[in-house]
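Quick check before the chapter quiz. The format below is the same one you will see on the exam, so make sure you can read both the input and the output lines.
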Amino acid sequence: MDGKTVESAQLRADRLNALLSPRRIGIVGVSASDPQSWGHRVVRVLIDGGFSGDVCVVHPKTDFPGVRTVRGIADLDDPELVVICVPAERSIDVVAQARRAGAKAAIVFASEFAEAGSEGAALQQKLVAAAGDMVLLGPNCFGLSNRVDNVKLSAAPFLNHTLRDSGEVALVAQSGALGLVLSRCVEEAGSGYSHFVSVGNEATLGAAEIARHLIDRDEVGVVLLYLEALRDPRNLADTATRAAELGKRVVLLNAGRSEAGKRAALSHTAAIAGNDMFLQSLCDDFGIVRIHDDDEVKPVLAALERGWQMPAHPRICILSNSGGAGAVLADQVEAVGGHVVQLSPETRAKVARIGMIGAGDSNPIDIGGGWEATLHLFKPTLDALCAAEEVDALVVYIAFGEMCTDRVVPIAQYCSDSAKPVTFIWQIAPAEGLAQVETPGILATSMGEGVRMLAAQMKLSDPRSARWVALARTALDLPSVAEDQKTLAEHESSALLAQNGMAFVPSEFGSADALDDLVARVVAQGWSRVVVKGNAHDVPHRNRVGLVRVGVNVDDLPQVLRDMRVALEAHSEDPRQGLLVQPMVDFHGEIGVGALIDPLYGPTIIIGPGGWG
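Here is the expected output.
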């Protein structure tokens, strides 16, 4: 990285710090007389949240009680951040004024920009131009909360009603409301969050860039992202790479995998979801933990907090006070990719010596009747199972417990402190017992919930050491094509790629009016069994219309070529159409390989099951 690039990156980081950790804030669009107005609520949330820096309201006529007020943005004293609570049209001029006043960052809450259609998109372009080199959060966003520095800039008093102290999770979301929901999920998982940032339409500042900035902060150990579109895959990859270097992780929840989800995302924050297959590959390559709903937040954060990891298909031990529940759990665990393995004789002997198991020591393990009387032996039994080499993770199931709540509650802590992943299911638990559990991240109250938690934790594989590298591109000299032609037929495309180092099965090509010559050339090659294909740029799926024949004996080749010529002429108008003959290669399975240059992800190779010509 050259000196100019380093300087530019530092300036950008300074502006992001001014957005996330400002000490001098100006707020525009505040009604002192209307407590329900957006601007009024923003001021109250900030003050009630304990902000200790300089906050100043901008209003042309009316002072805000208890807060310093100036008449214009130009009267602000060296503002770092200007918070804009005016409608869309007016916000453009206010952003321009903030820039002239020397602000490094701005927040625009207003909607009716790109998410509202073409007119809104044009308005958003004006907003971007007005912002210039300022960092701008939004528009159409819900603000932010930095709990480390007590900077809470939103109209949502919810941000001041937290359940836990600030923790290591930083939450960045393209949806404000769902982002707030996820912040509560984080807290209900037993974790705390340090930052909440709602990015809205990402006019100049995207979720991935904010995540990359936050991952370097000492107070952040996990970045939880909610995305409706990934506009900058490289920034996300760089964030995950940096997280791995620091021993941190990135967790991603995204919408837009279905067509309905894509439509909702587009209308919500002007986000167009990308190809889900490409996104999954990026997550796999860079160690991003991908979750699919709010229920998976709890088990994934619990596992990350404890440093728990499992192999892709873990060996699971089930310990239950119900033989029937153990059997059901075994089926469910196997269905999600776990293996309920036989325990070794050494492990079974060790458990037997402890003396807790009264019904069966095979896996699943049935504690048996009278289990309440042996709960004092639970911890050594759990320790013995965790120490077993043939066990990667455990599921502990307890039903009822109203007569021994004080002895079941500590089991949750035993499970939480385990060196290996443990899911604790307490079904039909007394309410007072659940209220006493201090480690909710590992607690489920049904078999289904418990298995879903286990399945979510199975996603926590080791981060790979991938790197995003810009590849040199080689321009190909394409053959001449018709004006409206968008594809090349196999004969032409394979010749083009062969010139650039790609190997292909040998082939002989002939036009439809020179079949005898084609047969002669095939015989001269010495091929005994061949594949025959129609070759035309306007028939991409040849097998569907009878233009692929495999396993053809050379003796039958003349008739097969004549038959295929008829089919080709019926389905193609390509003036260069012809027939390809290739030697039959023995195979046990067919794969398809494709490549494209994706506008977001760059050069992409796709490999999958074949079957269509």
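If your answer matched, good. Confidence is low (pLDDT under 50) at residues 260-273.
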